[in-house]
Amino acid sequence: MRKYLFAIVVSVLAIVAVGCSADDNDATNDKNKEEEAETITVEHELDTTEVEKNPEKVVVFDFGSLDTLAKLDIEVAGLPQATIPEYLAELGYDSDDYENVGSLKEPDFEKIAEIDPDLIIISGRQGDLYDQLEELAPTIFLGVDNDNYMDSFESNVQVIGEIFDKEAEVEEELDRMKETIAEVNEEVEAANKDGLIILANDDKISAYGPGSRFGLIHDVFGVPAVDEGIEVATHGQNVSFEYVVEEDPDLLYVIDRGAAIGEGESAAELIVENKLMERTKAMKNDDIYYLNPDFWYLSGGGLISVEEMVHEIEDSIK
């Protein structure tokens, strides 16, 4: 009889244990599903997009966002390797460890579909392709606004921080950068020098002023523009070297498009430092600065690139 009762008790306990185990498994599965389903709503220039938290497979077309991800030690699955900036290549992004998803303006849609990403990050060069990319995966636009560069830059990196649970690291980086920019502003004011920004493209040059693609030199870093009337446009205002001589800036900032896209030699050797330019204060005083086109033309808007851009302007003032 005792053996019979003992067997009944054991059976009941086993049933209870199985039931508890099943309940625990169900609770764990429910919790995992909740974690897997956790998303955030990202409002961006092109749309409002639901993005999965901590996505595992990320395709990035914006090099500024890519260098932010690199700074935060966040892995990516694919990027356009056709014209990758040298500083990102040095970080290994040109290797076979990453899928090549085409070029900045011509994505490889088949490759992207093959990757089946959880998130695609784009900027201005891919804006017209947003609908096609959105069909493949949740896609967000993280380009910078030239009219409000720093605010849009900060917003973009904060979005990345929120998506990948890196808010604290992002705020630490931004605070440090703001301190450096404030120091640069003081140095610029003390130097009391005006400046002009030109883009060299083959044998032609165009000028950029406040509010333009490279206007943060004036708008954020505080270098006074030698000509406040430069047409604000993405591609700048076509000018001649006679114009540069006439405006005669203290500081001349040059961005070499050919060097950025891998065409031609340095703009210094080809066109900028010519006989006519010998009459300018910038050339006489050795104040012509060739800004790194990787940061200024191909990339920008990332934690690494913006920091380097700050330091380049700081070095030009010292």
Description:
- The protein has 318 residues and is an alpha/beta fold.
- Helices cover 46% and strands 15% of the residues.
- The chain has 14 helices and 12 strands.
- It has helices at residues 2-37, 63-71, 86-89, 109-115, 130-134, 149-163, 167-191, 216-219, 241-247, 257-260, 267-272, 281-284, 293-298, 303-317, and strands at residues 39-43, 48-52, 58-60, 78-79, 99-100, 119-122, 139-141, 195-201, 204-208, 237-239, 251-256, 288-291.
- The strands form 4 sheets. Strands 10-9-8-11-12 form a 5-stranded mixed beta sheet. The protein has a 3-stranded parallel beta sheet with strand order 3-6-7. Strands 1-2 form a two-stranded antiparallel sheet.
Blueprint (SSEs and pairs):
Elements: H1 2-37, E1 39-43, E2 48-52, E3 58-60, H2 63-71, E4 78-79, H3 86-89, E5 99-100, H4 109-115, E6 119-122, H5 130-134, E7 139-141, H6 149-163, H7 167-191, E8 195-201, E9 204-208, H8 216-219, E10 237-239, H9 241-247, E11 251-256, H10 257-260, H11 267-272, H12 281-284, E12 288-291, H13 293-298, H14 303-317
Parallel strand pairs: 3-6, 4-5, 6-7, 8-11, 11-12
Antiparallel strand pairs: 1-2, 8-9, 9-10
Helix pairs in contact: 2-14, 6-7, 7-14
